[in-house]
Amino acid sequence: MPTRKGSVKLFRLLRIDVYLHWAWFVAFLYFTSRSKAYSNYGWSALEILSLFLIVLMHEFGHALAARSVGGTANLIVLWPLGGVAYVKAPQRPGAQLWSIAAGPLVNVMLFPLLVGLAYLGKHLGWPQSHHDAYLLIRGIAIINTVLLIFNLLPIYPLDGGQILRSLLWFPFGRANSLMAASVIGMIGVALFLLLAVGEFVAAENASEKHSAIWHGILAVFILFSCWGGLKQSRALAKLAKIPRRLGFACPSCHSAPPLGALWRCGQCGQDFDTFLTQGSCPHCNTQFNLTQCLDCGNRFPITEWLSVPPSNG
Q: In Å, how far are 38, 104, 105, 180, 197 from 144, measured between CA atoms?
């Protein structure tokens, strides 16, 4: 996933920093050099900028929805394959579902506006009187529709795959739902990759070959993300089987911490049980002010975990 490293900060809005990855500029130059049916390359540039404006609005939908259910969101990174909103919603299926579904809902709200504008332009004769402007409006409407349909495919980690995972979370639990969504996603992306290969083989010109290559790159990226989700689901399943320590609870998700040396010292690299040593590494005596919850990932002072009286039995 893209990060702030190698990215340029564009602005800060609603306490969310928006960055643009360096690879975006390469993609921008490549796609704007293909003027399509426009009279000049400037219209192609406007189309690409409109695409990433839609992507940015989509990612803000994720971020603001996560905040509305008590989560955190302070970073969005745009890159050639779209955008990534770094959100941390509460580890509850309902909260996860809302924070994911809010992104596609932005595209749903844009759909009647953009399609209606394109239809109005056609009705007013813009294809003849304002040809480039009409092509731009129609192109933006098509882009928004394609993004909506593509994102709703049940392929993890696309929004559709994550929505599926959140729905499966209700009956099957956190780990099993992620495993099921990852497996379904790997099957879907394998089909998508085969389609990209077929598209490349059937391509009759360089433009069609470039499009097939781009689809193949996207498929490979999604495949690696599915594999990462599968590995994470296995880790969550193992974590769920570990006995829990009585007397402590995460201030955020309220789960009791697992027993065992499952925290790693950032200084000496040794594993230790932070709740036995009150946040101090027994190997190098480094004191850690914050303790991470292995279930939700949030960090709190260890004194804030003492919300449940220790058991004497």
A: 19, 10, 11, 29, 25
List Cβ neighbours of 184 (8 Å cut-off, separation of 6 or more).
154, 155, 156, 161, 164
CA atoms within 13 A on the CB side of 48: 23
What's the CA gap between 8 and 116, in Å, rounded?
35
Residues constituting the chain = 313
pLDDT in tens, 15-67: 999 999 998 888 888 777 765 678 888 888 899 899 999 999 999 999 999 99
- Asked if 60 contacts 18 with a C-beta cutoff of 8 angstroms, the reply is no
Verdict on whether the full-model pTM lies above 0.85? no
- The DSSP string of 263-298 is EE-TTT--EE-TTTTTTB-TTT--B-S-EE-TTT--
> What is the reported pLDDT for 192?
86
Strand partners, 151: none
Domain ranges of the chain: 1-152, 154-241, 244-313
Q: Considering the chain, what percentage of its residues have pLDDT values greater than 90?
A: 57
